[in-house]
């Protein structure tokens, strides 16, 4: 799948503003961003439920506009919030969706492994959010698609359900399925995606593997020591471009690439001050930090 | 956390489980799965059963046995065609509109539209379910009417089937138009009010010939009046229904279908 310069407007609001995406087979691409960033709109255009105002979109080599039957037969979609008849039993619904595919997975097996058997004869509208979500996920994969769109697949799920979904997505990737995942959960993107595209206000603000996005110079080291030590000596001792601060009394923070020589500078400075550095932690940036840094806003707002 | 966290292949999913093997299902199987499910759902939904079976049964028995509306004897011969028309209206219009309104609310139309199910099958599946329920109604109500002494004109039965199909098309298209465009709660209110007004003033309980002049003229042009009067003619006399009821039903079906193809939204 590839997207170049996608623009989608609703009235005077521009929901997606020049987005580029690439998703090869057997890989997971996470669209990460806060609510209203344009993630769902992007999925809607790629699945043919909305028309692009500008840009080129190719899904399995086809223009998805108008959602042609031949394309829909090859993809699986988990629309945001799922979808089923209000009075239907989970298994009945899965059977209807399975009937739309030529070689569906075994409905009994899939509903068992996704914990849908526990839903029994409860109508869809009375299922919990997590159960509805697991049904939606089952519906998205039951047709053995080549490409799966999962819009917020773990929304409303407990940690156990989330673990199950993560396992499922890993298994899809392993078996050669391409997965486009939208999420506002950092852990999800970090744990699952080969590639993360961070979007905000319909634009790509960062793009790369989770490791690349969070690695590089932007490391930091935190430690505890006696409060109120003079940091000037440390700043002089550290190489160019490093920062040192005491954001909270007794908690120190050194920013920059932390390697053994930098570590030894820090410990010897502490020794000179007659202090012992305690609880030393070297942390990589999380995607959360990346987002905060790029947009000046928290992701979960 | 790093990307090395890509879980080692999880035990619950054997390698190859999800190896792509895409393709659309056979149209017949898709139709059967969708229509069969919608039919089952309608028959186990209490409110739908009240609307499509219980109320017509009560009206059939009540209007036959009680002298509420002045009708020629045997009363059952005049009552039954009206109740059959009511049954079609209840299922194809009111029931269909309400079901579609809430189906959209719960995202199922969108869900099905994202599968390989072609658009024409999505509509055909709903109509097939409607026809299935109408068939159940005709059998139940016809049998009950026969017990009450109904003896329809045998030569009119084929005409009656045609009229029921046309009525299902006209009311079904109107129901899809209503349920496919408005919010679920608004659909619920409108579909019930229209049902009640047409029941009393649309030529169903009170035959068009007994309505006051201007109302009779309006009722003749409504799908309820056309269907009820057409059924009264063919089932009591065995003669063809005449052109008016047929044209009225065809016109409503055509206009509503045209509007529905432009205005209906998936959610």
Automatic annotation (TrEMBL), chain A:
Keyword ATP-binding: yes
PROSITE patterns membership: ABC_TRANSPORTER_1, ABC_TRANSPORTER_2
Superkingdom, natural source: Bacteria
Localization: Cell membrane
Keyword list, A-Z: Antibiotic resistance, ATP-binding, Cell membrane, Membrane, Nucleotide-binding, Translocase, Transport
One CC-aspect GO term: plasma membrane
InterPro entries named in the record: AAA+_ATPase (IPR003593), ABC_transporter-like_ATP-bd (IPR003439), ABC_transporter-like_CS (IPR017871), ABC_transporter_ATP-binding (IPR050763), P-loop_NTPase (IPR027417)
Membrane topology: Peripheral membrane protein
SUPFAM superfamilies: P-loop containing nucleoside triphosphate hydrolases
Pfam annotation, one family: ABC_tran
Domain ABC transporter residues, every copy: 1-226
Predominant location category: membrane
Any one GO MF annotation of this record: ATP hydrolysis activity
The UniProt record lists the keyword Translocase: yes
GO biological process terms, semicolon-separated: response to antibiotic
PANTHER family with a match to the protein in the record: ABC TRANSPORTER ATP-BINDING PROTEIN
Protein's UniProt name: Spermidine/putrescine ABC transporter ATP-binding protein
Originating organism: Pseudonocardia hydrocarbonoxydans
From TrEMBL, chain B:
Record localization: Cell membrane; Membrane
Domain annotation ABC transmembrane type-2: ranges: 43-267
GO MF: ABC-type transporter activity
Domain of life: Bacteria
GO cellular component: ATP-binding cassette (ABC) transporter complex
Its membrane topology: Multi-pass membrane protein
Entry annotated with the keyword Transport: yes
Gene Ontology BP, a term: response to antibiotic
Principal cellular location given in the protein's record: membrane
PROSITE patterns given in the database record: ABC_TM2
UniProt-listed Pfam families: ABC2_membrane
Record keywords: Antibiotic resistance, Cell membrane, Membrane, Transmembrane, Transmembrane helix, Transport
Keyword Protein biosynthesis found: no
Transmembrane residue ranges: 49-71, 83-102, 123-150, 156-179, 186-206, 242-264
Family: Belongs to the ABC-2 integral membrane protein family.
Name of this protein: Transport permease protein
């Amino acid at each position: 799948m590839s997207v170049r310069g996608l623009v989608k407007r609703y009235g005077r609001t521009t929901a997606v503003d020049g987005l580029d995406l690439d998703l090869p087979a057997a890989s997971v691409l996470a669209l990460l961003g806060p609510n209203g960033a344009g993630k769902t709109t992007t999925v809607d255009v790629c699945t043919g439920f909305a028309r692009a105002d500008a840009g080129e979109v190719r899904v399995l080599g086809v223009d998805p506009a108008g959602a042609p039957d031949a394309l829909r037969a090859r993809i699986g979609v988990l629309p945001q919030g799922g979808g089923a008849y209000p009075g239907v039993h989970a298994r009945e619904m899965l059977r209807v969706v399975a009937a739309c595919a030529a070689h569906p997975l075994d409905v009994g097996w899939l509903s068992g492994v996704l914990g849908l058997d526990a839903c029994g004869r409860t109508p869809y509208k009375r299922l919990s959010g997590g159960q509805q979500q697991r049904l939606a996920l089952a519906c998205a994969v039951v047709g053995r698609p080549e490409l799966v769109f999962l819009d917020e697949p773990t929304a409303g799920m407990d940690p156990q359900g989330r673990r199950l979904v993560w396992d499922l997505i890993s298994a899809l990737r392993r078996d050669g399925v391409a997965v486009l995942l939208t999420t506002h959960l950092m852990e999800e993107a970090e744990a699952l995606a080969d590639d993360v595209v961070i979007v905000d206000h319909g634009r790509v603000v960062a793009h790369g593997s989770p490791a690349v996005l969070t690695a590089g110079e932007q490391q930091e080291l935190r430690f505890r020591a006696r409060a109120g030590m003079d940091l000037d000596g440390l700043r002089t001792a550290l190489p160019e471009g490093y920062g040192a601060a005491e954001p909270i009394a007794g908690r120190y923070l050194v920013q920059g690439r932390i390697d053994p020589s930098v570590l030894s500078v820090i410990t010897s400075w502490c020794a000179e001050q007659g202090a012992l550095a305690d609880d030393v932690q070297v942390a990589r940036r999380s995607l959360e930090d990346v987002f905060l840094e790029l947009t000046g806003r928290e992701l979960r707002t | 956390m790093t990307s090395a966290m890509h879980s080692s292949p999880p035990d619950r999913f054997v390698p190859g489980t999800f190896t792509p093997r895409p393709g659309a299902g056979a149209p017949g199987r898709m139709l059967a799965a969708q229509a069969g499910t919608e039919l089952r759902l309608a028959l186990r939904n209490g409110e739908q059963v009240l609307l499509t079976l219980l109320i017509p049964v009560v009206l059939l028995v009540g209007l036959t046995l009680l002298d509420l509306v002045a009708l020629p004897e045997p009363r059952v011969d005049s009552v039954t065609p009206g109740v059959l028309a009511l049954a079609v209206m209840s299922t194809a219009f009111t029931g269909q509109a309400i079901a579609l309104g809430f189906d959209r609310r719960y995202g199922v139309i969108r869900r099905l539209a994202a599968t390989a199910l072609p658009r024409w099958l999505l509509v055909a599946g709903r109509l097939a379910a409607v026809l299935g329920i109408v068939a159940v109604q005709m059998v139940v109500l016809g049998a009950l009417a026969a017990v009450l002494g109904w003896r329809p004109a045998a030569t009119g039965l084929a005409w009656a089937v045609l009229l029921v199909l046309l009525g299902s098309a006209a009311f079904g298209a109107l129901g899809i138009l209503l349920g496919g465009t408005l919010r679920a709660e608004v659909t619920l209110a409108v579909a019930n009010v229209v049902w009640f007004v047409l029941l009393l003033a649309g030529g169903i309980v009170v035959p068009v010939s007994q309505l006051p002049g201007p109302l009779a003229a309006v009722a003749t042009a409504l799908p309820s009046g056309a269907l009820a009067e057409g059924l009264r003619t063919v089932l009591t006399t065995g003669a063809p229904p005449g052109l008016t009821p047929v044209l009225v039903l065809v016109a409503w079906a055509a206009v509503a279908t045209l509007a529905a193809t432009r205005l209906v939204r998936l959610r």
